[in-house]
Design brief:
The chain is 34% helix and 16% strand. The chain is an alpha/beta fold. The chain has two domains: 197 residues, Vaccinia Virus protein VP39 (Rossmann fold); 54 residues, no CATH class. Strands 1, 2, 3, 4, 5, 6, 7 and 8 form an eight-stranded mixed beta sheet that branches. Strand 7 and strand 8 form a beta hairpin. The radius of gyration is 23 Å and the shape is globular.
């Protein structure tokens, strides 16, 4: 007798948290998105709705001990995930902490987090549950911290009042932005890949006025990025590639050269710097 293929929502640790044949890709993309947004091994990470550690198994290995925390109301799913995907020895080695509550209460950890992620929550949550989640995030996100989430974008907002898994709920970006601002959080849409077409977004404390890259790419690990960071550490703002191109152009043309459009030329400030050099 053939085994029936598992489908999303089945009581199996891989199927319960999404399409089981996408378990590997969804978890990996979740981790890569965090990395591109700046997650590093010494940061404190809270994984809201960590499930069977589909995404959590990657930062668990990566982060220093005592840095990974998970919220998950379905204890059986979490325990199956630990047994099948990572093993209890890794949990002990990394001193991971978990709370089995369904109300997004991160205060149980008595910790402020550099990063908080909710990769599979907003596409199944009601509006009230999203508000509760954002309120918790605003209290538990460290100054200069980042919240990373995903949702299903729609032309109107779902009106469901309960958790709807495996059914989905859609929301307008403008609605999530408004809810975020009410909690003192700045909302930024992120251009990054997602295997199921979900829309990534990031939240930061409004008072921090922290810049978030709208487009995520592997240039976050480029040689140019390293050089830029070294300049910033030394109190120097790195120029863009466009700035350098204008600088090089200014050295081979005259300021009154009409064959080049005005916006391609250096500002008077950089022209003066160029002449000084």
């Amino acid at each position: 007798m053939e085994m029936q293929e598992k489908v999303m929502g089945d009581r199996d640790h891989r199927a319960w948290v999404g399409p089981p044949d996408y378990y590997d890709r969804l978890g990996a993309v979740q981790f890569v998105t965090l990395l591109l947004l700046g997650l590093r091994e010494d940061h404190f990470l809270l994984d809201i709705g960590c499930g069977s550690l589909r995404g959590g198994r990657f930062p668990l290995i990566y982060l220093n001990p005592g840095r990974y925390f998970g919220l998950e109301p379905e204890e059986w799913c979490l325990l199956q995930g630990i047994e099948a995907e990572v093993g209890s020895a890794l949990i002990s080695l990394k001193r991971a902490q978990f709370s089995l509550n369904a109300n997004f209460d991160a205060s149980v950890f008595n910790c402020q987090f550099d990063y908080i992620i909710a990769a599979g929550i907003f596409m199944h949550a009601s509006m009230t549950q999203i508000e509760t989640c954002l309120t918790s995030v605003s209290r538990s996100l460290r100054s200069n911290g980042k919240f990373v989430g995903a949702f299903l974008a729609g032309d109107s907002d779902s009106i469901g009042t309960e958790w709807s898994y495996p059914d989905v709920q859609f929301y307008k970006a403008s609605t999530l932005r408004s809810l975020s601002e009410q909690c003192g959080l700045d909302f930024t849409l992120i251009d990054a890949p997602h295997p199921l077409g979900h829309q990534w977004f990031a939240l930061t404390h409004i008072k921090d006025q922290r810049h978030i890259n709208h487009h995520l790419g592997l240039d976050a690990f480029s040689w140019e990025e390293y050089l830029s960071v070294q300049l910033l550490k030394r109190g120097i703002s790195p120029k863009s590639r466009e700035d350098y191109l204008r600088y090089d152009l200014s050295k081979i043309i005259r300021s009154d050269d009409e064959s080049v459009v005005p916006q391609a030329k250096l500002s008077s400030f950089w022209q003066q710097k160029s002449s000084e050099n």
